[in-house]
Amino acid sequence: MKQHVAPFGDGTVVLRLMEERDLETILAWRNRDEARVWFKNSDKIAFDAHLAWYKRYLQKEDDFFFLVEANGRPVGQCGIYDIDKSSGRAEVGRFLVAPEMGGNGFIGRSCAEIIRFGTRFLDLSYLFLEVMEQNAKAIRLYGRQGFVEESRSDGLIRMGLSPDKTS
Predict the structure, then answer these.
(1) Which of 18, 132, 139, 164 has the most CB atoms in a 10 Å sphere around its CB?
(2) How far is 6 from 24, CA to CA, in rounded Å?
(3) pLDDT tens, 152-161?
(4) With bands split at pLDDT 50, 70 and 90, how would you rate the model's confidence at 3?
(5) pLDDT category of residue 39 using cuts at 50, 70 and 90
(6) Could you report the per-residue pLDDT of 72-97, keeping only the tens digit for each?
């Protein structure tokens, strides 16, 4: 059973756990041609497959997927998953901004909030992400949040963040 997480944020963005009512919105964002290219699986996803994924997600205790809101309006998404409390590690990602909301800093703010959630609320000591080598904009954003490149493989850059960089 998924642990309840109260909405949290920085005064501009609020992250709340995704709900079934959000599925159509986030699927529409994710299935856009200009968004799909940045995901490991760049195929369009059918709603039935998305709903099945969501039902599996609800059973996971090591996966939190957040809808990002600003002024009560959905503006993006992000997540923290594969959480391993015994090793103090987790992956962050699934960052995506609503098409009409790009350029407002919502993903940078969301990234900062997911780092805070992982390091302070979940008490994790190491966060990492993977980003496509061609995604220079995302690489710069993650670098501004303190992530540093650790390795490259198959067109992906792995970036990591340790707690001394989150203070």
Answers:
(1) 18
(2) 22
(3) 999 999 999 9
(4) confident
(5) confident
(6) 999 999 999 999 999 999 999 999 99
Q: How many residues does the chain have?
A: 167
φ, ψ for residue 162, nearest 5 deg? -105, 160
Backbone dihedral angles phi then psi of residue 159, each to the nearest 5 degrees: -120, 140
Among residues 82, 81, 62, 65, the alpha carbon closest in space to that of 30 is found at 65
3-state secondary structure the chain: CCCCCCCEECCCCEEEECCHHHHHHHHHHHCCHHHHCCCCCCCCCCHHHHHHHHHHHHHCCCEEEEEEEECCEEEEEEEEEEEECCCCEEEEEEEEECHHHCCCCHHHHHHHHHHHHHHHHCCCCEEEEEEECCCHHHHHHHHHCCCEEEEEECCEEEEEECHHHCC
| Nearest-angstrom CA–CA distance, 77 and 93 | 9
Residue with tokens 């966060």: 127
Using a cut of 0.85, tell me whether the model's pTM lies above it: yes
